[in-house]
Write a structure and sequence with these properties.
Layout: H1 2-46
Amino acid sequence: MGILKFILSLLVAYYVFKFLSRMYLSYIINKFKNKNYRHTTNNTKKEQEGEVTIDKMPKGKSKKNNAGDYIDYEEID
């Protein structure tokens, strides 16, 4: 009888933990999504229409991929 009570209490604890974790994780995810949404909407309101902003400046000139020289070959019979 004691082992049956123990197994039953483990099952109840498992399902309660599962239920509470789903509620808590959904709350955290919604809070994170709303925070990002408010952050993006605030940034768009600051900029006026027609205004140009540059977030990142390119670093110097772009380098070409120098894989080596191309050598033309002839087929020998």
